[in-house]
## 1
Amino acid sequence: MAADMDTEGAAARRELAVRAAVEQGLLDAEPLVCLLDTAGIRASAAALTAAFAAELPSGTPVLHAFAVKAAPLVPVLRLLAGAGLGCEVAGPGELALARAAGVGADRTVLDSPAKTPAELREALALGIAVNADNRQELERLDALVSAGPTASPIGVRINPQTGAGTIDALSTATTTSKFGIALRDAGARAWLVRAYLDRPWLTRLHIHSGSQGVPLALIAEGVRELHALAEEINAAAGRRQVDTLDIGGGLPVNFASDEHTPSYADHVRALREAVPALFDGSYGLVTEFGRSLLAKHGLVVARVEYTKTTGSRPIALTHAGVQVATRTVYAPAAWPLRILPYDAKGAPKGGEPVAQDIAGPACFAGDLLATARELPLLAPGDLIGVPDTGAYFFTAHYGYNSLPRPAVHGFAVAPGGGVRFALARPAQDLSAIVAEAGGGFRDALL
Ligand SMILES: *Cc1c(COP(=O)(O)O)cnc(C)c1O
């Protein structure tokens, strides 16, 4: 598979950033910080844009909408907007973040399986693209659309029922998935075509059938179903009623090494093989990538507080655990993470590999980032780096044990090797934790 990213450059930037984080005191006040490589994020956004642009006739409308849930941080959305990307949002919180980042309504797409009437009304008033999830939502939209004009392009999400990947919880295209209208259920296809003919304002079709653990060919098979349905609707309508296909996101990420595989170019190639007509310029395209844009550009850096040996197993007790790597802790087989060892100064740590457990700070036995991992024996004061955590890890904080949300710093490396950090999210302080825990309502239950 082709790599369209400079992996050596990214690894070199990471090593400089860890050392600079120590030298510049980022780890003095807090034992845990999260870093984002802004050059890497820009490079991924550029790779995505280039991969599709290379295959589409010029002038084909394309919106790459970043799936906000992967990294719901306003400065990240702003950075991506500067690189030409929009936002895919799944509710009022994410919409508020996109708006705070200055992302326009015409660059925003609202998907979610449980939109309230108020959310739909707001989206249509703003002119945000909306993808309906189900028949009842379409009926709500009927009422709203007939009540007044809207600039919102509106589509329907389908479930191609093409099958699961290797992670059940992330497989959106199973026979019984909760998302979208199931295309292969009895009568569903005819119902959908009729629904479009009855609603001339339905101009889009939406699918999101990929995710971690889903092979590219299976994602492409879903997109082929989407395209075929659009052609069928347009033939029945006798006009190009469906003018835009939203093909979702779901490009898997390699958590085993620094290589960006599969690449966006690989993904586009798989799509081209399965659905050549997708690239003939007859449809505008929307994509909704999340994990593949951010994952490899995030790094958790945590101090080793103590070490011990229990039942002859060395254990490093660190400050990175379930609060920043929830999926890895609860489903370690599906979400293995690399652990990079550093000494107290932030230099890569060498030494004979010893099987160790890397534990987090939370008070339950399963709070482990790695079990029996072969690493140079860690000592108190050393650091661990946890790469590939830029999406759905520290940006999806889990508030167990009232552990604070750690600070997120973007970093950029100057040509001479100097590292400049920019705070993108401050660490949550104790007063914020108390306030979120009802601190202002102390006597409410008396
Ligand atoms: C989560 C989600 C995405 C992004 O998926 P990734 O695997 O992060 O690329 C895109 N579209 C929808 C509808 C989603 O729910």
## 2
Amino acid sequence: MIIDLRSDTVTKPTAGMKEAMFSAPVGDDVFGEDPTVNALEEKAAKLFGMQAALYCPSGTMTNQIAIRLHTRIQTEVICHKYSHVYLYEGGGIMANSLASVKLLDGNLGKITADQIKASINPDDVHAPETTLVSLENTMNKGGGSIYTLDEVKPIRKVCDDHGLKLHLDGARLFNALVETEESPADWGAQFDTISICLSKGLGCPVGSLLLGSSADIKRARKVRKSWGGGMRQAGFLAAAGIYALDIHVNRLKEDHARARTLGVMLSKLPFVSEVFPVATNIVIARLDRISPEEFLKNLAAREIKAVKFGPDLVRFVTHLDFGDDGLEDFGEKINVFHNY
Ligand SMILES: *Cc1c(COP(=O)(O)O)cnc(C)c1O
């Protein structure tokens, strides 16, 4: 059996999820007539205490639409230098919104209110106007690290004091919330827009949600249309999202427990110099004496898949299709590396 830990996007829909998908009532969502899409959008908006939501094909689209809403040509976005919105969205901030980026450094991928405050551009002819701060929770490149509400509230205050919008790339927000036990509504209250991925830990085949005010989501719907993201009988896909919000949130804790065990296993290998603190379902290991390519090749020979995540880093992500059997199998297979 192949153990695929490259990402939590590799999961296949469960039997229960497929049943929900096949039996979904559908209509033409571009006409606003798909009852299942409408139900998913309403359910998510209500959960986060936000006015409205928009179902999109991907998290890249929901993030990029949010950035489009909160910027104009010659304005600037503040984010961490390892943010998904900057690193992994094809240069979309520039290509889709003609905006500039201010990249901040920070521990485990996180930035602070003080750093943000110091990075807001002055009202000066030389500088692009700062209009948006974008945070990521959990932070992928920080090893699945978590922002708490106590860290976000001072950031919200800086944004309010300076007239900035605040967006959350919450691709894995539920992974954070099941650990902190903070409520989605308390998070909804802090942000202008939130993007949530249904196709990561929540196990859907497709889909992300953008949450925000009714006015912002109305504009977002038009941006989505112009980018070709208006889908027709999308309720078959949205049904998976409803199912996942009901059934797949609490079980994320299991993925976290397995990730912690996996982190301990990796930390015992002689060529692993460091494992990032395992906060959720992402495990990042730093290697010495052996390159990521060599380690990954040796893992692949044992039917284990992971990804390179930097010059000396590899990443493993636990998910719905990685159970206790997989974990045990993983432990046995990596035993051979103890004499490496
Ligand atoms: C996966 C991911 C996204 C969105 O990715 P898509 O593949 O476009 O759905 C956004 N942000 C983070 C942190 C992610 O991990």
